[in-house]
Specification:
There is one protein chain. The chain is an alpha+beta fold and 247 residues long. Helices cover 29% and strands 36% of the residues. It is built from 5 helices and 15 strands. The strands form 2 sheets. A 9-stranded antiparallel beta sheet has the order 7-6-5-4-3-2-15-14-13. Strands 1-8-9-10-11-12 form a 6-stranded antiparallel beta sheet, with helices on one face. Strand 8 and strand 9 form a beta hairpin.
Length: 247
Amino acid sequence: MLKVLKWIGIVLLTLVVLGFIAVKIASEPKPTGETGVAADELAQKMLFAIDKTAWDSTRYVQWNFAGMHDFFWDKEQHLVEVKWSDKKVWLNPNEISGKAWEGTKMLEGDAADKLVKKAWGFFVNDGFWLYAPTKVFDKGTTRALVDLEDGREGLLVSYSSGGLTPGDAYLWILDENALPEAWKMWVKVLPIGGLSSTWEGWQTLSTGAKVATKHATKGIELSISNLKAGQSLAEMGRAEDLFDGLE
């Protein structure tokens, strides 16, 4: 029996080592690039391509991410309704606070706090797939030009703070109009560095901002649906007392 367990242990250890080696082989090292005016100019071109001015002036946005989580965001107050399964949270992302429901029951105490934190994590992650191009000049970011294999220049954006995993970096691949086509990711939540995902299915919101609705990674597609924007709750088909009592 001990001999069998010993061989099982050896096999498992071998599989772990082989898996580690496979990840290392598949991973790309994070590139280095040149920071400065040229990198910032390319970032500004990308912001123009997606019409960040229109995005900044958009009051309300709603969307579903990957068929799992529904969001309704009051960008002016920075308050968000997050819904999944039978759960609903009214969230203040700045304070990571809010109100939580399971079904029709309003939760309190630790149960409410747990759902609020989960909703915050969903919003930070899923929202980034919606509006990441708008955040290339956020506090704590650096931008660098990177020479790509096809002769083009990519925009490497590194985040020293913010989000769920500060220290992440993204290499934007842009088309001739500086509209994102894809990015490569060096993020703590993924074991493979340089994993690529597309930015496609671009839609123009009623406010003029452009948003990508499809992201394909290794044959796995993350889609954004039920996308809508507006400047008033009435335009969004919502009641005027949304987020009542939430600060």
